[in-house]
Design brief:
about 140 residues; alpha/beta
Length: about 140
């Protein structure tokens, strides 16, 4: 429900540009993708909207709406967020995997600030660029 309110606010004031879909995992890399998305929401208000892969494919499809670019943040090579996006009938414009950035999947370990920054930088350097390529 919270995402719908945020999307409605964005739609009425500033057009949404990038949709971030994050991993639903409980491991450190899954939590990392969510925290990186939340950082971007704070740093670039109105430019990003965040959707969690825990929601249903139908809800994800509805929330994507008029996003100009879809960026998927997966925690590991299980690619849970990508699978959910595919189930919703969409593909990503950019796919970033945290473990592909050199971040170790370490069970329930705490997410470190430097790891969050690494993922945020990958999004800003790849996901926010016109030449984003899938991994």
């Amino acid at each position: 429900m919270r995402l719908r309110v945020r999307r409605d606010l964005l739609r009425s004031h500033i057009p949404m540009t990038f949709a971030l879909i994050t991993c639903s995992g409980v491991s450190n890399t899954g939590k990392l993708t969510t925290q990186a998305a939340q950082v971007l929401l704070q740093r670039k208000p109105g430019q990003y909207v965040w959707m969690h892969a825990k929601q249903s494919a139908a809800m994800l499809d509805a929330e994507l709406g008029d996003a100009e670019k879809v960026i998927v943040l997966d925690g590991c090579t299980d690619c849970c967020a990508t699978k959910k996006l595919t189930a919703a009938g969409h593909t990503s414009d950019c796919h970033i995997i945290a473990t592909g950035l050199g971040i170790e999947k370490n069970g329930m370990a705490d997410v470190r600030f430097d790891e969050i920054e690494k993922v945020v930088e990958a999004i800003l350097n790849n996901g926010g660029a016109e030449s984003c390529t899938k991994t």
